Amino acid sequence: MTPVPQIAEDAMLYIVRPTKGEAIRTLMSGTSWTPNAAYVSVRNRRTIPTEAATALLAAQVDEVDIGTVRSWAEPMRVELHTSEGRWSTIVDRARQKEDGRLQLSELKSDWAGFATPRAQVQERLGRLAAGALGAEYVREVPASLGSPTLRKNAILIQCRRFVPVPLRCGYVAADMFDRLGTVSLGRLADALAPNRANGRALICSMMVQRLVAIDLEVPLGDDSCVRAVPPLPEHMPGLFDLLIRQRPQLHHAA
Fold first, then answer.
1. Fewer CB within 10 A of the end CB, N or C, for the chain?
2. Are 67 and 154 contacting, i.e. CB atoms less than 8 angstroms apart?
3. Which of 47-61, 68-82, 199-213, 229-243 is predicted least confidently?
4. Contact status, residue 71 vs residue 45, Cβ threshold 8 Å
């Protein structure tokens, strides 16, 4: 059994950042029978490594969720060194929310996964890292990523993330929102393209780009409500901003 580390006076916490890219670990580590994928994120403008089904689902939901501006997969390794020993873990996911808050997330397939000794160590180190970064620490399973309807809608919408959106579509949508407030998906689709199916695909891609917001809590259809996306704060903090201000000497991965 792996003991949960106790914080002593000689404890040193290290947050190790990747030297290349934004993920500390590459795909296919070969250490377990775990499904791996490379998720191409349009919102984040990069490929995100995912390990296990819950991580892939989190990437798909974050790609669509208007409340999430940016997300990172496995963005850091956390190490705790004390006279009693050394512990380390890799943070599963980080997010920047629309109000500027930062989140560090630990993902499991079910809640029982958080009860193992290894998971308790991961949580302890994750909470320490969140405190150092001024972030919120959250534990997540598929059900906590949203209702079944929301998750189904998010998966459908992110499938259209590569559809190119002409500049005029943003102006057309903004004009309708100014005049009508909330618009039905079918009506907006008809305004964006001669073919309604093409218009729906454009709206889905626009949501990934945070240009429109579709109500995800009802089954996706022509009657779904679509609204404008509120503007972001003038300043959005970076994931490591607080750490850099407090401790300029950062430890990087070899």
1. C
2. no
3. 229-243
4. no
Question: Which of helix, strand or coil describes residue 77?
Answer: strand
CA dist., res. 125 & res. 78, Å (int)? 6
Residue in the block written with tokens 């559809």: 163
Q: What does the block give as tokens for 53?
A: 């089904």
pTM above 0.85, yes or no: yes
pLDDT in tens, 101-131: 999 999 999 999 999 999 999 999 999 999 9
Strands, DSSP E only, in the chain? 12-17, 36-41, 46-51, 68-73, 77-82, 85-90, 93-97, 102-107, 136-140, 183-184, 212-214, 225-228, 251-252
Tell me the sheet residues that pair with 95.
71, 103
Could you tell me which residues come within 8 angstroms of residue 8 by beta carbon, excluding any fewer than 6 positions away?
A: 82, 83, 84
One DSSP character per residue, 137-205 reads EEEE-GGGG--HHHHHHHHHHHTTTTS---HHHHHHHHHHHHHHSSEEHHHHHHHH-SSHHHHHHHHHH
Sign of the four-CA dihedral 64, 242, 7, 249: positive
pLDDT for 1-10, tens place per residue?
A: 456 666 767 7
| CA neighbor of 102 nearest in space, from 125, 69, 65 | 69
Q: Which domains does the chain have, with CATH numbers?
A: 12-145+235-252 (3.40.1350.10), 148-223 (no CATH)
What residues does 228 pair with on adjacent strands?
212
Query: What CA–CA distances, in Å, run from 190 to 74, 86, 197, 207, 228?
Result: 40, 60, 9, 17, 17
* Tokens at 93, concatenated: 């996911």
CA 156 to each of CA 32, 37, 53, 84, 201: distance values in angstroms, whole numbers, following the listed order: 30, 18, 16, 49, 10
